[in-house]
């Protein structure tokens, strides 16, 4: 930093003569103090008479007149800044105050002199990054990353980001601003240097020269606080400038004058009359025998604000009158002597509040240039639209688009369609194509004679420059390693076809949406290229790309072209002249959705590139729609004039070398096949004659730049030629460590197989566990709370065998990943006795440090969310020994006869560690330490995950994670165990602001009387609800039910829901009910605590109902009636454990306490059956005060059906763009008995609510409101889930938007139902930005009746 700080050094012992000489020097340097202070950091601050300071011992300053402040002060422009530029200061204690007429200085001690000699011996006797080429300077061991301004000036300023890098005793790391002159190399670097470092120079105040005037800050003091990676940033505002009256060079810190270097120190050709250069940046030094230390934050500039060190607010005084300006970016030159270890980059503008969003604010000159470019790129629109994602699309006159600004297209005539159209081979397909209609932006329609283009913004231009600066300015997959192209950070997996006269290519690109960081890219591509040498290479690439710098987020349609090997021509989409757009429906850069689901529905887009045989233009066609073309004249001097000689299909990723590379495609290797690995199918080639060909297997070559991480495979079938595809991609397995060298976790597939064969012994019997079901384990009753289920039905090992989980390749890869992450020991044990790197580890444990022979504890089970590079665990650990003799196991007790350490879980002997594994100083004869608690790990770049339940222990039982039943065995014969006294347990938390551990006495046992009473109440309630069964069935959740088919069909293909499971038949005189479990009761209470105990959108205006977290989209019929009916389209939206999403019909009457209502439909609530839809009902007779419940959880609803139980799983469900399924719901009042009946699934009478439940002011007389629609609930802190299909009704497309049709009301008792006119239905959406509802006439003849369309993607947080 500008105040040069030197790290602590080894204490060397000087000889007696040297010591005597140093004592004399100290007496000379340290002037008599008027007042002194000892700081908490161990150094002494002296108040020295300002007229008697060391500076005036310099021969050139004998008659110098002291200046207390500069006569002229530059008017620095203010910076908008997100870091605290005034918070990082030289440390100053409150009670330190120097008298008037004195200044404050740090007392020099013997160690300072020794350190100065060490610095000189290390080679650090000048700032090596300045003018190193002008002198024969030995720079061995020095490394720089700086930015310089070389022009005449009178001072400079910069805000230097403050960090605290680790260095060894023989290293240093600094950040500085240096002002220098020409003659004899004179410079100032928050210290001063003159005469080319030959005779006059020193650090801080170790020699005469610098005149100190500040009474607040002493040079050489500790600077704090320092910046935190991805957290709060601190900086020093440093300025050095020449007083134009006196010629002195002043040094200011955070606008506080610290002191000055008098003009008389310098020569006229040096710094006496201005300066010729200024440098900002970092420097490190390390002896050649050591690895050089980190510079700045220790992270490369590509990571950006809060992660990489920076200097911002750069200013220059350009003339003697103190005129201040910001240097142009073009005037700044970057220098990095070792770019593989240290780098520097300039970013337009300064880091401001927008930096948090990874945006930059351009300087005024640059902003004007960008505005000029934007004006040229964005042509005047005839019509404009703004999407939900904030992007703007313009309708541009087709003859005035950007393409015609290209000098080769000035007289070009627009071709509205190709003159020759290829006849591609038609192929069968198993996946669903995204067609042009799906890309039609909602509500956007361009007039005839216009084309649609995405408007370019100033941020797009900034991001394009940033892409170029990080190395990704072109898609590199058409380049090869042998053409001297820099492919650092790029990884490909493609299938290539290299033959002459390729006139076109086709392929269906499977759509995925891989996660990438801000500076990463993942794409799928189809490309053509041609040209004899790289300088004449022409190429066109099309496909989809995830690139936050180009498209913010998610997957977008992209194109790229070049005509000169990516040198001067070409760009993405329409960011430069070239591509001629003809479509008014499909803009380049448009968002693509929906995308594929792993092992589920696959989505793809049909793309083709072909050359017009008449004009020579290259056309892009999407799903049969001509999007536009690249005119032949663009390639007249290069390779695509008469066809191409390379076609390529596959994937590419890019990542800076400092980050783990992202996933490609689906993130899975090609061997997993269709539905799991990404693919390009329907691959065709157009030859020079215009004939479409399927490339033969021998003509395709795969190209894998990093085959351990990304692969490509061409799959073919000679009998069925349409089953030909390129499968590509993988989950990234490249980890970057401190040396920035990759560790490949899948070094060799054969080695993995060999290791697996060694680990997995030949089995006598094997079982495939079904991950889609929750096992029903045997129950262990001796526990404070419900113990973990352990044993799965159907698994039984023969006598003489043991059961083990088979190790897989993924297990081995993960083991290496854990080791690379540092998780290879119990890091919180014996921390003080080992040199263990605990970076990223956090613990919260209770420890027992005494001799013992075993321990026990009941570990509360949770499932915290972690990222792929994190873990979170709870454990019990037993250990003994120190350093290399440390021995430990997690869980167990020692057999006093054999000495083996046994692991017992759920009262089941699992196994043991033999005594022979350990030594006498370790666990062979007992242990000395045991701990219970939690541990997490996270890379320093990520926020650490939650531990346990994710709540602090103060919240207590049911909220905070715990370990109960703690015991230790102190008797070597294991004849007794005890709960250790609380005073013998010590709690330890490595980061108490994030994780804590506390201990509670036995009197505060988690097994409370209240808990026991609560469980007894639930058991009594279960006995009351579940009546004695005549016959019972255990349904099979691991298989898909085979239902009987309802032939009364209102859907396109699926009809009303098939419902009845084979083998389930109740005897005459019985009814079928779903048995209520203890979990159901607990869940019902959870629902009530969440507030979900009523139909919230009914009569919400009539009473003070808290609607926080609730969202509705319904159609209402507000007239007196005796029932309602409708077919509810069935979907299965994803919800979190605390959310639900439902569709229902509701009938109600009355208000407030007299409100009465019944409802039926489907609901998705994770705790009921993961994310599946279930049939449900709800009723109330007193405004949800005391009466009512779900399904049969309380008395009221009378079940009569022997086929349909309430609460039953509904399968199958509707598929977006595919087959639709419905459930018919009919509720009406019996005109004779007055009972309200529920009828479902093809006139099946499920049961009824007796009239006696209701009153005449409510449903006893009839209903006053009927509603159809959807409802969701989410805690206010979470984004609300999707409703229905998750799509807005504006899409007006059956099979894509949730609907209810065939709705009927009964206006008279005993009458036939009638369809209410649409104008009698009132639609209501509580949050229309997230969910909407629309009533409409039949669509395209697909829905036979008037319909209500409702739903939305969600995302509300209120």
UniProtKB/TrEMBL annotation:
Residues 137-366, 485-738, 746-1019, 1098-1357 form the Neprosin PEP catalytic domain. InterPro entries: Glutamic_endopeptidase, Neprosin, Neprosin_propep. It comes from the Eukaryota. PROSITE patterns: NEPROSIN_PEP_CD. PANTHER family: PROTEIN, PUTATIVE (DUF239)-RELATED, PROTEIN, PUTATIVE (DUF239)-RELATED-RELATED. This is Neprosin PEP catalytic domain-containing protein. It comes from Arabidopsis arenosa.
């Amino acid at each position: 930093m500008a105040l040069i700080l030197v790290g602590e050094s080894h204490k060397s012992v000087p000889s007696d003569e040297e010591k005597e000489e140093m004592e004399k020097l100290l007496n000379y340097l340290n002037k008599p103090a008027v007042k002194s202070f000892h700081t908490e950091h161990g150094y002494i601050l002296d108040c020295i008479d300002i007229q008697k300071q060391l500076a005036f011992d310099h021969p050139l300053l004998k008659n110098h007149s002291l200046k207390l402040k500069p006569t002229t002060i530059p008017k620095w422009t203010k910076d908008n800044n997100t870091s605290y530029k005034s918070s990082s200061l030289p440390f100053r204690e409150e009670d330190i105050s120097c008298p008037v007429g004195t200044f404050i200085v740090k007392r020099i001690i013997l160690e300072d002199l020794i350190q100065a000699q060490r610095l000189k011996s290390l080679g650090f006797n000048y700032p090596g990054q300045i003018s190193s080429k002008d002198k024969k300077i030995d720079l061995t061991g020095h490394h720089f990353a700086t930015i310089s301004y070389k022009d005449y000036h009178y001072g400079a300023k910069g805000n230097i980001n403050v960090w605290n890098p680790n260095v060894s005793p023989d290293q240093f790391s600094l950040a500085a601003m240096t002002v220098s002159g020409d003659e004899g190399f004179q410079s100032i670097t928050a210290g001063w240097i003159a005469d080319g470092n030959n005779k006059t120079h020193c650090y801080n105040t170790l020699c005469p020269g610098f005149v100190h005037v500040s009474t607040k800050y002493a040079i050489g003091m500790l600077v704090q606080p320092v910046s935190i990676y991805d957290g709060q940033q601190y900086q020093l505002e440093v300025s050095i400038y020449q007083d134009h009256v006196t010629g002195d060079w002043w040094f200011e810190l955070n606008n506080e004058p610290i002191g000055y270097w008098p003009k008389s120190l310098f020569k006229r050709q040096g710094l006496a009359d201005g300066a010729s250069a200024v440098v900002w940046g970092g420097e490190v030094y390390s002896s050649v025998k050591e690895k050089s230390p980190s510079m700045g934050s220790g992270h490369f500039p590509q990571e950006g604000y809060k992660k990489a060190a920076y200097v911002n607010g750069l200013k220059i005084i350009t003339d003697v009158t103190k005129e201040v300006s910001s240097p142009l970016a073009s005037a700044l030159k970057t220098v990095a002597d070792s770019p593989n270890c240290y780098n520097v980059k300039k970013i337009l503008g300064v880091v401001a509040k927008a930096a948090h969003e990874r945006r930059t604010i351009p300087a005024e000159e640059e902003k004007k240039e960008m505005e000029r470019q934007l004006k040229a790129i964005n042509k005047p629109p005839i019509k404009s639209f703004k999407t939900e994602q904030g992007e703007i699309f313009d309708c541009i006159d087709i003859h005035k688009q950007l393409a015609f600004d290209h000098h080769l297209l000035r007289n070009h005539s627009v071709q509205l369609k190709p003159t020759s159209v290829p006849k591609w081979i038609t192929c069968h397909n198993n996946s669903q194509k995204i067609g042009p209609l799906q890309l039609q932006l909602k509500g956007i329609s361009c007039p005839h004679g216009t084309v649609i283009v995405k408007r370019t913004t100033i941020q797009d231009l900034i991001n394009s420059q940033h892409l170029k600066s990080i190395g990704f300015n072109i898609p590199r997959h058409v380049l090869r390693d042998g053409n001297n192209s820099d492919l650092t950070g790029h990884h490909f997996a493609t299938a290539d076809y290299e033959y002459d006269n390729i006139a076109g290519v086709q392929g269906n690109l499977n759509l995925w949406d891989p996660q990438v960081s801000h500076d990463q890219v993942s794409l799928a591509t189809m490309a053509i290229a041609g040209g004899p040498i790289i300088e004449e290479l022409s190429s066109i690439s099309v496909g989809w790309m995830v690139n936050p710098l180009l498209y913010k987020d998610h997957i977008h349609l992209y194109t790229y072209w070049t005509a000169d090997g990516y040198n001067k021509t070409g760009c993405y989409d329409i960011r430069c002249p070239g591509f001629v757009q003809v479509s008014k429906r499909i803009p380049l850069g448009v968002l693509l959705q929906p995308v594929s689901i792993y092992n589920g529905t696959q989505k793809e887009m049909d793309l083709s590139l072909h050359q017009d045989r008449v004009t020579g233009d290259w056309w892009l066609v999407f799903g049969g729609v001509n999007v536009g073309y690249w005119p032949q004249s663009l390639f007249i001097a290069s390779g695509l004039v008469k066809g191409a000689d390379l076609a390529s299909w596959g994937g590419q990723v890019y990542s800076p070398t400092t980050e783990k590379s992202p996933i490609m495609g689906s993130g899975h290797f090609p061997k997993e096949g269709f539905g799991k690995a990404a693919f390009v199918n329907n691959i065709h080639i157009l030859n020079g004659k215009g004939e479409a060909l399927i490339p033969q297997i021998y003509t395709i070559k795969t190209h894998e730049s990093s085959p351990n991480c990304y692969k490509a495979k061409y799959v073919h079938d000679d009998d069925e030629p349409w089953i030909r595809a390129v499968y590509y991609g993988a989950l990234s397995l490249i980890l970057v460590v401190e040396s920035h060298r990759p560790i490949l976790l899948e070094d060799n597939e054969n080695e993995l197989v060999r290791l697996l064969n060694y680990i997995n012994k030949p089995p006598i019997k094997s079982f495939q566990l079904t991950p889609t079901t929750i096992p029903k384990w045997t129950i262990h009753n001796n526990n404070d709370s419900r113990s973990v289920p352990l044993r799965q039905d159907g698994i039984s090992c023969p006598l003489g065998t043991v059961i083990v989980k088979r190790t897989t390749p993924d297990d081995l890869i993960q083991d290496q990943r854990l080791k690379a992450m540092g998780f290879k020991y119990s890091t919180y044990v014996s921390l003080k006795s080992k040199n263990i790197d605990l970076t990223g580890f956090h613990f919260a444990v209770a420890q027992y440090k005494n001799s013992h022979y075993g321990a026990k504890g009941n570990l509360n089970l949770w499932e915290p969310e972690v990222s792929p590079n994190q873990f979170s665990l709870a454990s019990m650990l037993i250990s003994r020994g120190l350093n290399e003799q440390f021995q430990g196991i997690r869980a167990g007790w020692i057999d006093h006869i054999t000495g083996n350490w046994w692991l017992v879980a759920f009262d089941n002997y699992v196994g043991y560690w033999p005594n022979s594994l350990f030594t006498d100083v370790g666990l062979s004869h007992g242990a000395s330490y045991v701990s219970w608690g939690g541990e997490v790990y996270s890379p320093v770049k990520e926020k650490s995950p939650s531990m346990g339940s994710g709540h602090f222990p103060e919240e207590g039982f049911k909220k905070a994670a715990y370990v109960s039943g703690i015991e230790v065995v102190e008797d070597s014969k294991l004849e007794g165990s005890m709960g250790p006294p609380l005073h013998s347990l010590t709690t330890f938390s490595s980061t108490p602001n994030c994780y804590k551990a506390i201990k509670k006495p036995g009197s505060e046992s988690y097994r409370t009387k209240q808990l026991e009473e609560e469980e007894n109440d639930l058991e009594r309630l279960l006995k009351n609800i579940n009546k004695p069964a005549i016959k019972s069935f255990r349904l099979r959740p691991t298989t898909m039910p085979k239902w009987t088919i309802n032939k009364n069909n209102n859907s396109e293909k699926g009809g009303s829901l098939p419902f009845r499971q084979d083998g389930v038949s109740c005897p005459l005189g019985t009814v079928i009910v779903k048995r209520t479990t203890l979990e159901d009761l607990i869940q019902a209470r959870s629902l009530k605590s969440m507030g979900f105990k009523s139909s919230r959108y009914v009569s919400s205006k009539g009473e003070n109902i808290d609607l926080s977290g609730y969202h509705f989209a319904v159609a209402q019929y507000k007239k007196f009636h005796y029932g309602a009916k409708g077919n509810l389209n069935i979907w299965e939206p994803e919800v979190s454990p605390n959310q639900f999403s439902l569709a229902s019909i509701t009938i109600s009457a009355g208000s407030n306490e007299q409100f009465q209502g019944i409802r039926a439909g489907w609901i998705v609530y994770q705790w009921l059956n993961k994310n599946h839809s279930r049939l449900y009902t709800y009723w109330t007779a007193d405004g949800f005060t005391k009466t009512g419940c779900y399904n049969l959880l309380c008395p009221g609803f009378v079940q009569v059906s022997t086929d349909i139980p309430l609460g039953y799983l509904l399968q199958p469900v509707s598929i977006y763009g595919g087959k639709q399924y419905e459930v018919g719901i009919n509720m009406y009042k019996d005109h004779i008995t007055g009972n309200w009946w529920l009828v479902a699934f093809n006139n099946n009478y499920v049961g009824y609510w007796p009239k006696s439940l209701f009153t005449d002011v409510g449903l006893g007389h009839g209903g006053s409101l009927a509603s159809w629609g959807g409802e969701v609930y989410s805690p206010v802190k979470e984004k609300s889930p999707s409703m229905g299909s998750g799509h807005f009704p504006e899409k007006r497309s059956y099979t894509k938007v949730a609907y209810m049709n065939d709705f009927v009301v009964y206006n008279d008792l005993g009458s036939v139902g009638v369809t209410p006119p649409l104008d009698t239905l009132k639609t209501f959406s509580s949050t229309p930005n997230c969910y909407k509802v629309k009533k409409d006439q039949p669509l395209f003849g697909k829905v036979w009746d008037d319909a209500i369309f409702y739903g939305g993607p969600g995302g509300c947080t209120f």
